[in-house]
Design a protein that fits this description.
The protein is an alpha/beta fold. The protein has a single domain, classed as Nucleotidyltransferase, domain 5 (2-Layer Sandwich). Helix content is about 35%, strand content about 20%. It has six helices and five strands; from the N terminus they run H-E-E-E-H-E-E-H-H-H-H. The chain has a five-stranded mixed sheet, sandwiched between helices. It is globular, with a radius of gyration of 19 Å.
């Protein structure tokens, strides 16, 4: 899986080759309590909930131009990963997608269905900082989920969809700038390893 399938884009079968980073994250009804600002002498109170109901979100971003694709999923497994890859393939049908992700076992499953225009490769283990999608999840959780009480799982889904829809290209670029040099160096090493 680490050797690139070069034949497809050498014969101009696709309009463009697109590098994207992908990942999934969990969102639920357990309140993540964080410190917050309040007037001097006032002790802040935050409602807390410990109900174990979760949904997942899969997402992929193109760090060069900010294009993205997200889905809300009922699980985090091979089946849902296959659904996400198919959705992503249909979102960019004329592009050959080089999709960089982490080493989760369901990303490498033998039963994973990978569309023809998608190529998977993986960042080194224990390096989430090299995946800008991780920064997007962190941004969403810090800004829209910390210190928030959700009455139902549907409210979590509504907030997640609203957060994803309100993401701006600038937020993608900000998360990339801090790690861009490291990502580029690693990608050059990977390309040289596969093509030389």
């Amino acid at each position: 899986m680490n050797e690139l399938k070069t034949s497809n884009f050498f014969y101009n079968y696709y309009d463009d080759v697109r590098l994207m980073f992908w990942d999934e994250s969990i969102f639920g009804r357990i309140t993540n309590i964080k410190s917050c600002w309040c007037p001097l002498g006032v002790r802040p109170t935050v409602s807390s909930l410990k109900i174990r109901e979760f949904i997942y979100a899969y997402g992929a971003i193109d760090p060069i131009n900010g294009d993205s694709s997200f889905i809300v999923a009922g699980g985090c497994n091979t089946e849902w990963t296959s659904v996400f890859l198919e959705t992503l393939s249909k979102r960019f049908p004329n592009d050959y997608l080089l999709l960089c992700g982490d080493n989760a076992s369901w990303h490498k499953s033998k039963s994973l269905i990978i569309p023809d225009n998608v190529e998977l490769f993986f960042i080194p283990a224990a390096t989430p900082e090299m995946n800008p999608t991780e920064q997007i999840w962190e941004h969403i959780k810090e800004n829209d989920f910390d210190n928030t009480f959700f009455n139902t799982l549907n409210k979590v889904v509504d907030q997640l969809c609203c957060s994803i829809n309100n993401l701006e290209i600038e937020s993608f670029n900000l998360t990339i700038e801090a790690y861009y040099d490291r990502i580029c160096l690693w990608l050059i090493v990977m390309i040289l390893r596969n093509w030389c």
